[in-house]
Amino acid sequence: MNEKSSQIRVPLRAAISCPHCWHEFSPEETLWVAAHPSLVGDPILADESQQQRFLPTRFDVSGNAIDINGEKCNDVACPECHLAIPRAVFELEPLVVSVVGAPSCGKSYFLASMTWHTRQTMAREFKLSYSDADTVCNRILNAYEEEQFFNPKRDEPVKLDKTAEEGDWYNEINFGDGAKRLPKPFLFAIRPSESHPNARYADRISRILTIYDNAGESFEPGKDTAEKPVTRHLAKSDVLMMLYDPTLDPRFCEDLRSVSQDPQVHDIRKATKQERIFTEVTERIRKHRGMSSNEKYDKPVVVIVTKYDIWAPLINNVQLPPPWVKLGKKEGNALHVGFIEKVSNRVREMLMEYSPELVQSVEAFTEQSVFLPVSATGASPTKSVTAEGTPVIGGICPQDIQPIWVEVPVLYTLAKSNKYVVPATKGFL
Q: Domain range holding 47?
């Protein structure tokens, strides 16, 4: 963008990181998306129906680019991958989160529940807006939210699709001699409302939350290639969230069968060495960040132990009330990080009994780790049997969904990274 184009919104960030390909560029290098219907077919984009991208030379009085056919343009794109970028990326400091986990660990359910409940909790308890920064990128996640929480068929089981290794989860671009697949991020703008205690600093403390999700299969050894750099976001992340599913670990299931009737515990499922997934993740981070084998990761790792409604007896059914307290009429609420970390210590103790290799791997990698109990649904899935007698684990009825602590990972991340957005306390709950 030139001087006129900087009127998109002010102030603009001096350096922009593309949420699709992670290329860093200045606002002046930004491409615009042609608006005239005849200007289609960009050489970088695999989809030939996409509008052309161009570096403008003409602008209207509002600072919007004019394409070669005289149409005013509204959308902007990355100069490297040519994918469209929401304008919030140019204004707000990014908070990048990578969500990883084994196949069938429940990432889709977690992300849908986390997003839905975070929207409400931030507005109601912390005077924050948590809104879609890009409805196109968030389309899949929004559809999941609607299936679980706005479904009129409340008593019919819903089963969310797992994250795929291809299709709508990714963008295809033509780069060099061949095609390249890039993950679609989920993008949310977090802004204080007018009643937030730090509303006057909104421009400085607002954030754009960028969340990456990948199929568990993408973390198998050998899957990180130049043609499929779908997990390269790991090196750019500010927070790593690792989902750990106890029902995929036979050591947990053996003890849980006596206290739970959940079919995920009783039916034979493919066991997964989830510590192996974490090891592969850490190797990729070290490689792409240029870290030595002994160097500690300087970012937090949040281990999210899913399906708490199943394994709660293993920690004596620790109660998990909303972890925030009232500071004052004007100050609003503060996240009780002291209570969260106390619960984390108890979960860590349990993991040391059943999966000590995971705890040791996490703590050998970073000095900033926390272990959070979460349930995306708070309910057991349905069970059926095929004609051949094979048990099949189905979906969950929307009326039965009662998530537990799904918003805590994001709130904790914000409280630890930006106390002016989400205040923190270690006082009494």
A: 1-86
